[in-house]
Design brief:
Layout: E1 15-20, H1 28-41, E2 45-49, H2 52-57, E3 61-63, H3 91-103, E4 108-113, H4 115-127, E5 131-136, H5 152-172, E6 176-181, H6 188-197, E7 201-203, H7 211-223, E8 230-235, H8 242-251, E9 258-261, H9 273-291, E10 297-302, E11 305-310, H10 311-316, H11 323-331
Parallel strand pairs: 1-2, 1-4, 4-5, 5-10, 6-8, 6-9, 7-8
Antiparallel strand pairs: 2-3, 10-11
The chain binds adenosine-5'-diphosphate (ADP).
Residues 21-23, 53, 84-86, 88-89, 113-117, 119-120, 123, 138 line the site of adenosine-5'-diphosphate.
Binding site for ATP: 23, 84-85, 114-117
Binding site for Mg(2+): 115
EC number: 2.7.1.11
Length: 334
């Protein structure tokens, strides 16, 4: 797994709070457990905020003990609940959240979520004296500055479980299946799933789909006896209904593909061993970084190690899909 940095404790904290926000991802629970247990170990009081930023603004905080996070390391979802809180983009609403934290004597906040949630954490760090640390929690693995995110590995494996089953039906009926996975803006999940499932094709938002070429490829392989069935992994993209439209277009090439939308099952389920270790490490390291005096950072992964990345750059830059990985996904089915 990833190596952990040595950090010297320089600061004291009275109390910290932890919240999960945005789309949930498997592994948020072990991350919360890591934060809570590491803080308690340093005799820091810990509050769990219910329902992300909405709960923070409403003051929905509860004191966390070691027992509060017992028996959750293996559970999907988040015991703290998650929510979207569009009002949090308003500085006046964020001021209410800061007031809540200050009223409770909380001097640091750990936010577990995707890039929207990390943007909220950055705003709080800029607008108050409260130290804020973000942890990348998303199945999309699309966060700049980190090679891995909490939930990605589990989501890849969940999609693979489903695709391995779909392949049996695809083969029995000699059909192609278009399997839609999550990924509105990025094809990380689709590309990894495509490679691991041995998919015949992968469609991602980063590259325009060549439908003529795809149709031709499928009918060629059917004619040549190379393959009359197979899996095409499609990232959902920004365009609702994309996968159904692709299936429709493929019928013009003599195919009768079926569509399977994996949907929210990809977000749920028991976190994989990899995600449990990643989430536990990031959660515990969030406390080490706070004690070492860091704030306004995300704790992520680079070159096999846990690292800190300024939140400012996390939210400013986009992480690009490695073109070589995408090429590999296309190459291996040939
Ligand atoms: P994710 O964290 O999974 O990317 P969202 O983009 O929905 O999910 O963001 C989750 C929450 O983070 C939002 O509901 C909002 O409360 C907060 N958030 C998102 N964008 C901003 C922003 N620009 N400024 C402040 N808070 C934000």
């Amino acid at each position: 797994m990833y190596s952990l940095p040595d950090l010297e404790p320089l600061k004291d904290f009275n109390a910290i709070a932890v919240l999960t926000s945005g789309g949930d991802s498997p592994g948020m629970n072990p991350a919360v457990r890591g934060v809570v247990r590491a803080a308690l170990n340093q005799n820091i009081r810990v509050y769990g905020v219910q329902k992300g930023y909405s709960g923070l603004v409403a003051g929905e905080l509860r004191v966390m003990t070691s027992a509060s996070v017992r028996n959750i390391v293996q559970r999907g979802g988040t015991i703290l609940k998650s929510d979207r809180c569009p009002e949090f983009k308003d500085p006046a609403v964020r001021r209410q959240a800061i007031d809540v934290l200050q009223r409770e004597g909380i001097d640091a906040l750990v936010v577990i979520g995707g890039d929207g949630s990390l943007t909220g954490a950055h705003c709080l760090a800029e607008e108050s004296d409260i130290a804020a640390i973000g942890l990348p929690g998303t199945i999309d693995n699309d966060i700049f500055g980190t090679e891995d995110t909490i939930g990605f590995d589990t989501a890849v494996n969940t999609a693979l479980d489903a695709i391995d089953k779909i392949r049996d039906t695809a083969s029995s009926h000699e059909r192609h299946f278009l399997v839609e996975v999550m990924g509105r803006n990025s094809g990380f999940l689709a590309t990894h799933v495509g490679i691991a499932a041995g998919a015949e094709m992968v469609v991602v938002p980063e590259y325009e789909v060549q439908i003529e070429q795809l149709g031709q490829q499928l009918s060629d392989s059917r004619r040549s006896g190379k393959g009359s069935s197979g899996i095409i992994v499609v990232a959902e993209g920004r365009d609702p209904g994309l996968t159904y439209r692709l299936a429709q277009q493929l019928t013009q090439h003599g195919e009768e593909p079926r569509v399977c939308i994996l949907g929210h099952i990809q977000r749920g389920g028991r976190p994989s061993g990899h995600d449990r270790v990643l989430a536990s490490s990031l959660g515990a390291m969030a406390i080490s970084y706070l004690l070492a005096g860091y704030s306004d950072i995300m704790v992520g992964v680079a070159n096999g190690a846990i690292v800190d990345v300024p939140l400012d750059s996390v939210i400013r830059y986009r992480k690009g899909l490695d073109p070589k990985l995408f090429e590999l996904a296309l190459l291996l089915h040939k």
